[in-house]
Design a protein that fits this description.
Length: 566
């Protein structure tokens, strides 16, 4: 079946798509089955609103005039480990009742750079109310951000009480905290919440009070900190450390190194099989991929900043942008060579999976592929939903949060749907068109040598099916960095989905599977936008759902206008 030529959709596909859509709505959209991904419908401050609230708080609490602030940055930060623990232990509802109002796990961190003051004043705001929940003076001399081990300097209960009184000047209710007896390396004090623990998670407060404690708060913020953190059980911390180590190892050896090898192979096959295709194939798509990702990189500078902060490093924005652009340029080259080498490889094997612009029926083919892509995307969404649900129930899979991929760290959140095109173009050309093609040619070629002649049609079908596995595995291992645990959860999910993607390409052609991939991602991103709480994003989410269709219609009309039928 997998070797059939591209065929149109019949009623069986339509009914399967309807069932897939129903599964997606029931499992992922409607919160009825303890799904992995929850959706928050509360109104969230925009980045500009958070910046203005921070300036107001700086004047009110710290005596910093707006005219003295020469630069600001706004970054969404999330306590991913705490969110992961709450998700894994099904304690998110309890956290929302007890801790979320005063000590949220997700905040806007607004850094205010004040004239004549080294470093910055970083204020953490509740993302919905805009309340000041924590703040820190980030000094320039500290290249890293952290508290370090406990200090050996002896401290008295009176000193701890004075520091807590200092914190109360900024809205902290001193009666809610008690000193743990710990003094931090920074010289500050650590306090435990008097509230009940959530599971085994304990809420702690850190206070660093400057030497000018006796003066007004506006004169005593430099060198100070009032911040909180959640102390998680050691067993969970060890588990997450182990998962992150596995994710790093799998990313390097399971994705990056194979991608380098595929890059080399794509160049080789472009040279050996380019005569079956055209060296202009893929240039436009590769350029579109790079242009979109370059723009999205600048759009995600706050997300890159969040990543460096999580690594304990500050001031790495420029380096992160440069590394990202170089990486995407290399991926664009791989996309180009995969297009030429893959198209030539399949044509040398007697299959044409990708029509060309100069063909008179190209516009109609794009329109047809777009329509088919929506139906196939519904099938993929349903399959993904069922797979994730089964993995959640069988493996205890759970999701956490990731500030580097956050909507709230996008300068223009409405640009998110463009990312769907980056993934759909690059991954289908690399993993499907070229990846499956090269492994199929190897497997069939090996069978031909072993048999001493052409293998049977049934053997070719089996070998083509097996050829989906290696590139599908590499593709899946490229997603282990997502905040879903255990890390092999996404590997299992995407390896299974890779069979559907590969089957769809072989049955309906490359353009259809690109539209299916783009539509799948656009729907997921659109649903995320609808529920992210940012003003205007609901309409943006609706637009994301129809965006692939609009692109297909525009290409169809352009081709009809530029290259009329002969």
């Amino acid at each position: 079946m997998i070797e059939n030529r591209p065929l149109p959709l019949d009623k069986r596909w339509v009914w399967t798509a309807a069932i897939g859509l129903a599964f997606f709505l029931l499992i992922q959209v409607f919160p009825i089955s303890g799904q992995l991904f929850s959706m928050n419908t509360s109104t969230v401050l925009t980045r500009a609103e958070a910046e203005q609230r921070a300036i107001v708080w700086a004047a009110d609490k710290f005596g910093v005039a707006a005219s003295d602030i020469n630069k600001t940055t706004v970054t969404h930060m999330t306590d991913s480990r705490t969110n992961g623990y709450l998700s894994k232990q099904a304690l998110t509802g309890e956290y929302d009742k007890l801790w979320a109002a005063a000590t949220p796990t997700d905040v806007y961190v607004v850094e205010l750079y004040v004239n004549g003051t080294p470093g910055s004043l970083a204020v953490s705001l509740h993302m919905e109310s805009g309340d000041l929940v924590a703040w820190r003076h980030v000094e320039e001399s500290s290249g890293r951000d952290g508290d370090g081990p406990a200090s050996e300097e002896k401290a008295t209960a009176d000193q701890a009480a004075n520091a807590l009184q200092y914190a109360s000047s900024f809205g902290i209710r001193s009666g809610d905290w008690e000193w743990t007896g710990v003094r931090l390396a920074s010289g500050g004090f650590e306090y435990a919440s008097r509230q009940d623990n959530i599971g085994e998670a304990k809420l702690l407060l850190q206070v660093d009070s400057p030497s000018t404690v006796g003066s007004t708060p506006s004169a005593s913020w430099q060198g100070g900190t009032v911040a909180y953190r959640v102390e998680l059980p050691k067993s969970f911390i060890d588990y997450m450390d182990n998962q992150e180590q596995w994710a790093s190892m799998l990313s390097v050896f399971g994705f990056i190194l194979p991608q380098v090898l595929l890059f080399i192979l794509a160049i080789i096959y472009t040279g050996t099989h380019g005569g079956h295709s055209s060296y202009r194939r893929g240039i436009f798509l590769a350029l579109v991929f790079f242009a979109l990702y370059a723009g999205l990189t600048y759009n995600m500078i706050p997300g890159l900043r969040a990543g460096t902060w999580e690594a304990g490093i500050r001031g790495g924005d420029t380096v992160s942008v440069t590394v990202s652009l170089v990486t995407y340029a290399a991926m664009a080259l791989l996309t180009y060579f995969s297009a030429v080498g893959g198209d030539g490889l399949w044509k040398s094997m007697g299959r044409s999976l990708w029509p060309r612009w100069r063909e008179s029926g190209y516009g109609e083919a794009v329109l047809k592929s777009m329509k088919e892509g929506y139906f196939l995307a519904f099938i993929l969404l349903g399959a993904q939903s069922v797979i994730l649900l089964l993995l959640e129930k069988s493996l205890g899979a759970f999701a956490s949060s990731d500030a580097t991929q956050s909507m709230y760290n996008m300068t223009i959140p409405l640009l998110l749907p463009l990312m769907a095109w980056c993934a759909g173009i690059s991954e289908e050309l690399q993993s499907r068109l070229f990846g499956i093609g090269v492994f199929r040619s190897w497997f069939v070629g090996l069978a031909r040598k072993l048999k001493g002649g052409e293998p049977s049609k049934r053997t070719v079908v089996v070998l083509t099916t097996l050829a989906i596995v290696p590139p599908g595995l590499f593709w899946a291992l490229g997603h282990v960095g997502y905040a879903v645990y255990p890390v092999y959860t996404r590997v299992i999910e995407l390896v299974l989905l890779s069979f559907l993607f590969g089957w769809f390409m072989l049955r309906f052609g490359l353009m259809t599977v690109i539209f299916a991939h783009v539509t799948l991602d656009a729907i997921l991103m659109g649903m995320q936008m609808m529920f992210d709480g940012l003003p205007g994003d609901f309409a943006g989410g609706v637009f994301s759902l129809i965006f692939p269709g609009l692109v297909g219609i525009v290409i169809w009309r352009l081709h009809g206008a530029i290259r009329p039928k002969t």
